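Why do we bother with holo predictions? Because pocket geometry can differ from the apo form. Keep that in mind while you read this record for nickel (II) ion.
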Amino acid sequence: MAVRPIRIYGDPVLREKTRPVGDTTAALRLLAEDLVDTMFDAEGIGLAAPQVGEPVRMYVVNLGAIAPELFLDRRGPSLDGEPEHLVLVNPRVVKREGAQTGDEGCLSFPDLYEKVTRPEVVRIEATDLEGRPVEIEGSGLLARVLVHEYDHLEGVLFIDHLSKLRQQFLRGKLRKLKESGQAV
Ligand code: NI
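The structure, written out:
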């Protein structure tokens, strides 16, 4: 178990096409553990594999950071009890409903928070590390984190959802972030 460096905007891995996870290997288990450790260390609500430099279809969610009433449905042995975190392997978004607009950030964009519109309700089907089905449906912040992390697997970043005007306004800030990221 280890905390890995989080890749910052400008790192090409954040735009890479991710590959589906095949059989669960020791390396994959280690990656999942490291994702969880890194997410908690950074006090994040979610973290996707590309953010630690691994372009594979897996992300983790900090369930303890989410209010219980936002969980609309949860199925799968890895959600039994009240786990502090969830590992989603090969996730698919099977429902997006409604809309919500609110502040959003990303661990790959330190100190940048912007208003982003997301679906109000999101449902994900995935598997856990044992290959067992996991289904989770949430609203509010849970819906937001579920699609934000899913976007990372598609090489999509939260700034992509901002208006062209807003992106233009942030250009200088983003350029600085890009330079700082590449310098590491
Ligand atoms: Ni992010």
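The first helix runs from residue 26 to 41.
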